[in-house]
Amino acid sequence: MAVTPRFATLAAWLGWQETLHPRAVDLGLERVEAVWHALGAPRPAPVVVTVAGTNGKGSVVAFLEAILTAAGWRVGAYTSPHLVRYNERVRIAGAPVDDAALMEAFAAVDAARGATTLSYFEFGTLAALWLFARAGLDAALLEVGLGGRLDAVNVVDPDVAVITTVGLDHTDWLGPDREAIGREKAGILRAGRAAVLGEPDPPASVRRAAETLAAPLLRRGREFDLRAAGPGQWAYDEGEETLILPEPGLAGPHQRDNAATAVAAARAAAAAAGRFLASGAVAKGVSTARLPGRLQRLPGPVERILDVAHNPDAAAALARALAAEPARGRTVCVLGMLEDKDVAGFARALAPVVDAWHAAGLGVPRGLDGPALARRLAGAGAAPVHAHADVAAALAAAAAEAVPGDRILVTGSFHTVGIALAAL
After folding, report:
1. Which residues contact 176 (CB under 8 A, 6 or more apart)?
2. Are 367 and 301 in contact (CB under 8 A)?
3. Residues 177/155, Cβ–Cβ less than 8 Å
4. Residues 6 or more apart from 373 whose CB is under 8 A from it?
5. Using CB atoms within 10 A of its CB, is residue 362 exposed (0-12), middle (13-18) or buried (19+)?
6. Which H or E run contains 416?
7. Does 105 have pLDDT greater than 50?
8. Less Cβ around it within 10 Å: N or C end of the chain?
9. How confident is the model over 297-323, as pLDDT tens digits?
């Protein structure tokens, strides 16, 4: 018997999902697992790669998606948050799914959940898994939303688990230091399944978890590494094999690190599938990967640069990238951040490459208003600082201040960049 959908528009579904569960973030797998099993516990693809980490998750997924697609695989990718449209979160064969498909998946989850309430992220995760299971995929790429051990995507056992980096973010939920946060992220590892670690010195808690599970380790700086290899090229080394690769399609010096991590994960995924991964597919994927909001440049007399960095480590990587390509004039920063972020650490990391700050209010849950953000910036020594009601007002003020040769940097949150992209 056909079930009448609860809502007729995607916007109505999403608005309702925001109110369904009493807490926006409620880490734990019991409710998600119960509904997933009610859906038939569908495995999203023959090969699953789960990607956790403080920074670089989205970039690693983008490189993985491009590499495996270039190799002829049919790939699904689930990422979060989105920038402009919710559909960005669920991609099949390189394209965001349409509203009708999402609403069909939401209706299936709704019918299966009974009286169980789900958070916005949990509802969307189950819908993505349901869609992937019906899409005839070769591989599903699942980006962890928060932490790892108790994140909704962890209901699925990955064939390859990736931890990009471990830094201080979301400390209220994950713990006060890298060791505690590393333990949470290591919760995505599985016994006997490949574990790819994207930083040379991960917390000991991650290494211990992998050893306990006998998970084969692929560690940057040990089992794989990267190095310069001449103009416009770099080398990926794994064991006795070397791949000479073109510059990554995503901008910034740190993207070589993310690309190398993705190459290691792609090779592990191919091994899990018993498939050959040609070096040409790796090279093509590395060079053609695209991802909005990561050092995204909008050219013009006054260049706009948009980047979703929102913690000090990401700000430091952004600062290095901007310093490597300095503006002819000044760099004016439009900044919007959430209240639980380390604004002072973010500002100090970015301060060497910023000449003026425009603090934008974010009208979203946990968003700082303009004056509150401006006070935190001033307290961190940033100057000059101007406060604005919202991102649009901050953008307008920055544009009025800038002259040809200057650049406007928009950063601090996915929300900030998403609002700016929609406006620009």
Report:
1. none
2. no
3. no
4. 335, 336, 337, 343, 359, 360, 361, 387
5. buried
6. helix 414-423
7. yes
8. N
9. 999 999 999 999 999 999 999 999 999
